[in-house]
Amino acid sequence: MEVPVRVVRMEQRSGLIRARLKGASLSTGQVITFLDAHCECTIGWLEPLLARIKIDRYATHPQAYTHTTHIPHTHTTHTPHTHHTYTTHTTHTHTLT
Q: Which key words tag this protein in UniProt (predicted)?
């Protein structure tokens, strides 16, 4: 599936949300997908997401656990970034057995 892509760069650093809002305001498509630096898109990643959006365009999210049908318990920890010039937190989710 060929998907048109447009990369928008901000003139100055203004934060993630402002950058995404700017990108959304310039969008001409029916579906907007934001990808972060850690995202890896393999062949076939978009079609299931678009199929779900077609069913209910107001409530959809990517399926985080594609190889499991049931996640009984999860535990969330927050790890601060130390390699950036600003402070933020990343959420890591671990399955507890």
A: Disulfide bond, Glycoprotein, Metal-binding
Structure tokens at 75: 């535990």
Each residue's pLDDT tens digit, 3-29: 778 888 899 999 999 999 999 999 888
Q: How far apart are CA 82 and CA 72, in angstroms?
A: 32
Provide the whole-model pTM: 0.50
How far, in Å, CA of 76 to CA of 64, rounded?
14
In which residue are the tokens 């959809």 written? 60
Residues in contact with 23: Cβ distance below 8 Å, sequence separation at least 6, in sequence order: 8, 32, 34
* Range 34-64 burial, b when 16+ CB lie within 10 A, else e: eeeeeeeeeeeeeeeeeeeeeeeeeeeeeee
Q: Across-strand partners of 74?
A: 95
Residue 61, phi-psi category: left (phi > 0), alpha (psi -120 to 50), beta (remainder): beta
